[in-house]
Amino acid sequence: MLTGLPGSRIALRLCCAATVLGALVAGCGSTALAPLHRTHSNLISIFEDEHFLHTDPSKALSTFKALGVDEVRVFIPWASFAPDPMATTAPAFNASDPAAYPATNWILLDEIVRDAAADRIGIDLTIGGPIPTWAEGPGAPRGSPYDIGWMPSASRFGQFVHALGLRYSGRYIPPGESRPLPRVDFWSIWNEPNYGHYLSPQAVGSVEVAPRVYRSLLDAAWTALGATGHNPQRDTILIGETAPRGVAGPGLPGDFGGMMPLRFIRALYCVGADLQRLQGKAAVQRRCPSTAAEDKRFVSDNPALFKASGFADHPYPDASAPNVRTVGVPGDSDYADFAALSSLETTLDGAAAAWGQKVQLPIYSTEFGYRTDPPTALGVPPKTAALYLNQAEYLSWLNPRIRSYDQYLLFDPGPTARSDFDTGLESWIGTPKPYVYDAYRMPLYLPVTHDSRNAELEVWGCVRPAPVVAARTHTLQRVQIQFEPTGSSRYRTLRTLRLTDPHGYFDVLVRFPSSGQVRLRWAGSGRALYSRVQAISL
Questions:
Q1: Which of 35, 116, 31, 46 is nearest to 464 (CA)?
Q2: What is the CATH architecture assignment of 70-367?
């Protein structure tokens, strides 16, 4: 996979691709759309800003739609829907029936689902914790601020997922209403199960616990979704949703620490560091098959592991460029951040192969972004963040295994929020961040920015809102590649491209006469919009 290779090998691959495929674009006219590598029509965009969505669902969804977003990620905290969630004993109710839950608990989610259907934007329902107290396993440490996902009951979770799957099956008519709720066809099971805040305990000593708990949750949810008409043939059903890093060392991650994602995956699939099946005591300790009969049943008993639509990951690169791997940190070889996605793929493929399955699960990025400085010193300058965001999307587009590009937050959390995830496209008061907002709305990336005079450089980009405008106006959208020579104060258009990709992407070679600056211009929304500016040196 390209994104996990060292920089020199990335450049070599890109150079070879341009050499081999360059003939495809030689001689194309100025209005032709000629991809150098391929048109990645299956790279969808996912957006997440839970606070904005909950505050004003209609406005949030219309905003996301105008930006060209395909799917909006929506968290489904089990305890927020369950009756009497703080009770230690489960109330008597039919947990598989959506009508048995308090009607008021469905109001916001129903509104979101209806508004999304009206705006023709998809909804990714991520089902997880916090869990009702009555669904906890034994031994929960009372009073801990992290006691929100202690060994959840798989059977009770399956009942809740059944209620959700039925309610949003496209057939369910809520009591007192006359029309069915819209169907939801995008599902994800749990959030960051390798993080003790969401699923605990993570491990007891050196023995992983959370992976086998998560395996049981997956099995229950898979069965429930299938029973209510949701399956990978009709729906997108994701597993994983792993945090990109964790902690390593004696006694870690313990109850509430973060387990390294690749370690978590190996235990989930019951394989060791060599990607071979666990045997003997190691298998028994992790509730993995330890007999020949159990070995034969593992694949059929755990269909989600092998038949899911994809594996979701949150590949935050922290403050590094997306292709720069973290080194020198204990356990870094088990990371799954953006630069380590090749290791994630290898682990998933090897784990499946250990059970005789030739499965290569697609990779979905479902939480991603760069913190900016300002407002947090943990971030990078907005101009750098804009470049990194565009580079990450380009590398995602280039890799056919990656199926989504995600943006976490429209608005920064604000100074009083207990969060340092200042990854928004806008400040907390609603002002677009310089460089960053434009970089998301209209990505631009040139893999090579230094070359000889009159060189042809690869220009990749996207006009994310263009497909939305094209569908509304029934007009073909065009984007201009503009250039300003060094020392000039005027841009001129070098190429005008027709946008035929369903997500607004393009990839072409452009000859530049000198050093200067490159940008994109699009006027399809009624007023001219521009990308970030990229300097080139020839």
A1: 46
A2: Alpha-Beta Barrel (3.20)
CA angle 127/128/130 to nearest 5° reads 140
Query: Which positions ≥6 away from 204 have C-beta within 8 Å?
Result: none
Residue 293 in tokens:
């009969």
Q: Is the pLDDT of residue 32 over 70?
A: no
Q: In the chain, list all ranges with CATH 2.60.40.
A: 2-38+446-536
Of 448, 467, 506, 447, which Cα lies nearest the Cα of 32?
Answer: 506
Q: What three-state secondary structure class fits 1?
A: coil
- Give the DSSP H/E element, type plus range, for residue 520: strand 516-522
pLDDT at 93 over 70: yes
Contact 409, 425 (CB under 8 A): yes
Q: For 357, how many CA atoms within 13 A lie in the half-sphere containing its CB?
A: 21
Instruction: Name the average pLDDT for the chain.
Output: 92
Judging by DSSP bridges, how do beta strands 236-242 and 186-189 pair with one another?
Answer: parallel
Residue type (1 letter), 369 = G
Question: Using one digit for the tens of pLDDT, what is the confidence trace for 395-422?
Answer: 999 999 999 999 999 999 998 888 889 9
Cα 205 to Cα 23, 201, 202, 249, 434: the distances in Å are: 58, 11, 10, 11, 47
Cβ(131)–Cβ(156) below 8 Å: no
- Cα-flanking dihedrals φ and ψ of residue 303, to 5°? -60, -30
Q: Under CATH, which number does the domain 2-38+446-536 receive?
A: 2.60.40
Beta pairing class for 363-365 and 207-208 = unpaired
The C-alpha atoms of residue 149 and residue 212 are separated, in whole angstroms, by: 14
Stretch(es) of the chain classified as CATH 3.20.20: 70-367
Q: Which of 460-485 are b and which e, b meaning 16 or more Cβ less than 10 Å from the residue's Cβ?
A: bbbbbbbbbbbeeeeeebbbbbbbbe
Taking the alpha carbons at both ends of the chain, their separation in whole angstroms is 30
